[in-house]
Amino acid sequence: WERPDVRPFRQRLLVVANRLPVSAVRRGEESWSLEISAGGLVSALLGVKEFEARWIGWAGVNVPDEAGQRALTKALAEKRCIPVFLDEDIVHQYYNGYCNNILWPLFHYLGLPQEDRLATTRSFQSQFAAYKKANQMFASVVNEHYEEGDVVWCHDYHLMFLPKCLKEYNSKMKVGWFLHTPFPSSEIHRTLPSRSDLLRAVLAADLIGFHTYDYARHFVSACTRILGLEGTPEGVEDQGRLTRVAAFPIGIDSDRFIRALDVPQVQEHIRDLKERFSGRKVMLGVDRLDMIKGIPQKILAFEKFLEENLTWRDKVVLLQIAVPTRTDVPEYQKLTSQVHEIVGRINGRFGTLTAVPIHHLDRSLDFHALCALYAVTDVALVTSLRDGMNLVSYEFVACQDAKKGVLILSEFAGAAQSLGAGAILVNPWNITEVAASIGQALNMSSEEREKRHWHNFVHVTNHNAQEWAETFVSELNDTVVEAQLRIRQ
Ligand code: ADQ
Question: What is the distance, to the nearest Å, from the Cα of residue 108 to the centroid of all Cα atoms in its chain?
């Protein structure tokens, strides 16, 4: 007698994102090594047990030869990943150009690049054409691997055309799209030359998700004002077809951070850091080196605090960890030099022969080192000028159950809506206000710190990444069923 195979049915989930969650390095003509690159989205979806998830995306490398493509496809299959191969010109125009030079700054209220302000400029048009072409290439790979009943979940501003391309292949595909950045006010979105095409393309999805209710509202306003469609409490309606629009605030895998604090290697890091900075309060910034993160503004606020608080000068240190990204883009290179210049000036001004007030690192830290840093921090400074959510603030809170440090958080980060009651909220553009909030945080009583921390800790541990993914996918399943019922009625 053999036990029947009674494994529960697990729905297949095709996660489509610009980048796969692995980095590929070529070792030989037909050999590749792969490394999982952890990030918010990866840890969110790795923890989801209910679905059988497969990833579709660009592997981040140019592979012009067929033998190399075949070998990489095979290696990736073991990690449940499916590559989309993009050539260098497409990557340049679609990824560096349209995604990172146009949509990313626009969605963070930094405007369009000057030379692209006219809809007719050649570079804008060719970048938009490459964007559509790249989205079409993603769609073709999705379509090749799609099986009836699958759920297709498209991610982020790189793939706004994808829902339309997918529905053209198969109008019955269940398609959801989630934006990880803010969606700006419709007045900002209006300035984009391809504003209507993008909105119409993404509206082909069955469900559209944002981190906050405000972003969802901005999106619905853009559809009503720019396309003249009808906004309803459920979403946007176009000739009887409803696209559901809602907020799905992301979370982190908080248990992973909490568990890490007991790992001997992390404990050792914590001991080292405590010894190194004994007698000083530790302030921490962890960001990708991007203009939206407000790193220069944060450092200038710290300078102002030191200027105005003589007694704190040798009693506090700011550790700023900034991972370089998009290093081939001139604006990012300029930002790096600007940050170095400010840090150098402040350390020259307030440093002594034995200690400097700012330690700045231009690199990524491994997970254990990051957890140890979060755990020894007294005050975390998250001063993004705009940020879809900001997971660093969540990670800090998860690692602070022993210390109960203070979070200073930008009111322009999506996280301000969930952690606002526990954090000190600031306008990152107001350097005087941020400097004052540093003083408030450093002098806060332990009772108040405990109260504020508890508020945030409960939120971060109760709204985790898995719940976020499960809620989105089940809402997508329900939305499609409801739409079918409406059609039958
Ligand atoms: P990001 O802009 O990358 O994400 P964030 O949400 O803060 O911003 O996530 C950054 C991740 O990178 C965190 O998990 C953090 O630990 C890690 N990280 C940052 N600096 C690091 C360093 N020096 N070393 C190691 N790790 C580092 C985008 C949006 C956000 C949104 C997320 C998820 O811009 O607003 O919250 O997607 O939707």
Answer: 12
pLDDT over 60 at 129, yes or no: yes
SS3 154: strand
The CA distance from 108 to 101, in Å, is 12
The kind and range of the H/E element at 415 are none
Those residues whose C-beta lies under 8 Å from the C-beta of residue 170, and which sit 6 or more positions away, are 143, 146
- How many angstroms separate the alpha carbon of residue 254 from the centre of ligand 1? 15
Q: How far apart are CA 356 and CA 378, in angstroms?
A: 18
Position of tokens 């497969």? 54
d(CA 395, CA 460): 8
Query: Which residue type is seen at 280?
Result: R
Name the residue with tokens 């559809």.
223
74 CB-near residues (< 8 Å, 6+ apart): none
Complex ipTM over 0.90: yes
Write the CB contacts of 9 (distance below 8 Å, at least 6 apart in sequence): none
Which residue do the tokens 């660009």 mark? Answer: 58
Let me know the angle formed at the C-alpha of 251 by 246 and 256, rounded to the nearest 5 degrees.
160
- The verdict on the CB of residue 323 being under 6 Å from ligand 1 is yes
Residue 252's nearest CA partner among 457, 108, 410 is 457
- State whether residue 325 is helix, strand or coil: coil
> Which residues touch 435 (CB under 8 Å, ≥6 apart)?
301, 302, 304, 305, 308
Residue 169, Cβ neighbours under 10 Å: how many?
A: 13
pTM over 0.90: yes
Q: How far apart are CA 391 and CA 380, in angstroms?
A: 12
Residue with tokens 């107001």: 430
- Among protein residues, the one with the nearest Cα to ligand 1's atom 27 is 364
Instruction: Give the residue-averaged pLDDT of 321-339.
Output: 87
378 lines ligand 1 (CB under 6 A): no
Name the DSSP class of 99.
I
Cα 12 to averaged position of ligand 1 atoms, centre (Å): 27
Strand order in the sheet with 406-410: 358-361, 316-324, 281-289, 379-382, 406-410, 424-426
Q: What is the mean pLDDT of the chain?
A: 92
How many angstroms does the Cα of residue 165 sit away from the middle of ligand 1?
29
Determine phi and psi for 22, rounding to 5 degrees: -130, 150
Q: Is the dihedral of CA 58, 63, 69, 73 positive or negative?
A: negative
d(CA 231, CA 238): 9
